[in-house]
Amino acid sequence: MEKKVAPLGPVAAHADSVPADPAADPRVPFAQSEDFLRVLAAAHEHLLNSIEDGQVDIDAWSPVTVARYVTTQTDRFVQEWRIPVNAAEMEIVAAALVKELTGFGPLEDLLRDPAIDAILINGYRDIHVSQAGQLVPINQRFTDDDHLLRILRRILAPLGRRLDEDCPIADVRLPAGGHLNAIIPPLALDGPVVSIRKFRRTPFTCDELLRMGTFDPAVHALLNAMVLGRCNVLVCGTADSGKTALLNAMAGYIPADERIATVEEVAELTLKHPHVVRLESRAAGTDGQGAVGIRELMRSSLGMRPDRILVGELRGAEVIEMLQAMATGHDGSMATVRASSARDCLQRLEILAGLAGFQGSEDNVRRQIASAVDFVVHVQRLGSGRRVVASISEVTGISDGGTRELFHHELQIDADGREQDRWVGIDLQPRSSKLEAFRRQLRQARGSRS
Question: Which residue spans within 141-204 are E strands per DSSP?
Answer without folding.
Answer: 169-173, 178-183, 193-198
